[in-house]
Specification:
8 helices, TIM Barrel, eight-stranded parallel β-sheet, alpha/beta, 219 residues
């Protein structure tokens, strides 16, 4: 049985006490911390930047799984790497040279992720799958939390898993967007091994984070 990792999105946390929220996640079984970075340009929302990530870094030993929804992304990779990101995930549409951006992330000794929006084809990144650590499959259009999962994305996850197996590659398949107790089993069965969830983890079962993380892993 494959190990399922949970990366709670702090987009759904109480922003007035993020340090405490992150500690709660670590104490209750989170495997990493998902940090959504939005610029109000590449996606229609604004969130946090490198200074906040740097301030939060001392609150946990968990990896920071940082999803950069900013454009142009290349010139900001250094800032997020130095702020404490452990995984830096970028969108192919947000850089003029994906290969160059991947190499820059590796230069800072960080793990590399590439994110696919719902309408972004796998073919765009096929040549890079052997070079990266993670593919983040978006199951909603990025920008805001609380959206409903797009079920057609399951086929994309399956296709990605088949490519991974056929070519004996090692990248993780992470899914973000509307992940909840109703669809987590289908997502895992399709081939994902990392689930990003915000609303479900922080809000369901009266905010019982441990129960929600455990349930997502074992559905």
């Amino acid at each position: 049985m494959k190990k399922i990792l949970i990366s709670p999105s702090i987009l759904s946390a109480d922003f007035s006490q993020l340090g405490i929220e992150i500690k709660r996640l670590e104490q209750n079984g989170a495997d990493m911390i998902h940090v959504d970075v939005m610029d109000g340009h590449f996606v229609p929302n604004l969130t946090i930047g490198p200074p906040v990530i740097k301030a939060l870094r001392n609150h946990t030993s968990l990896p920071f799984d940082v999803h950069l929804m900013i454009s142009p992304v290349h010139k900001y990779i250094k800032d997020f790497a130095e702020a404490g990101a452990d995984i830096i995930t970028i969108h192919p549409e947000a850089t003029d040279d994906l290969d160059k951006s991947i190499k820059l992330i590796k230069h800072f000794k960080k793990k590399v992720g590439i994110s696919l929006n719902p309408d972004t084809k796998i073919e765009i990144i096929k040549d890079y799958l052997s070079e990266i650590d993670l593919v983040l499959v978006m199951s909603v259009y990025p920008g805001f939390g609380g959206q409903k999962f797009i079920p057609e994305i399951l086929k994309k996850i399956e296709n990605l898993k088949k490519i991974k197996d056929d070519k004996n590659l090692n990248f993780n398949i992470e899914v973000d967007g509307g992940v909840n107790f109703d669809n987590s089993k289908s997502i895992i069965n399709a081939g994902a091994n990392i689930l990003v969830s915000g609303t479900t983890i922080f809000k369901d079962n009266n905010g019982d984070i441990k129960k929600n993380i455990d349930t997502l892993k074992t559905m």
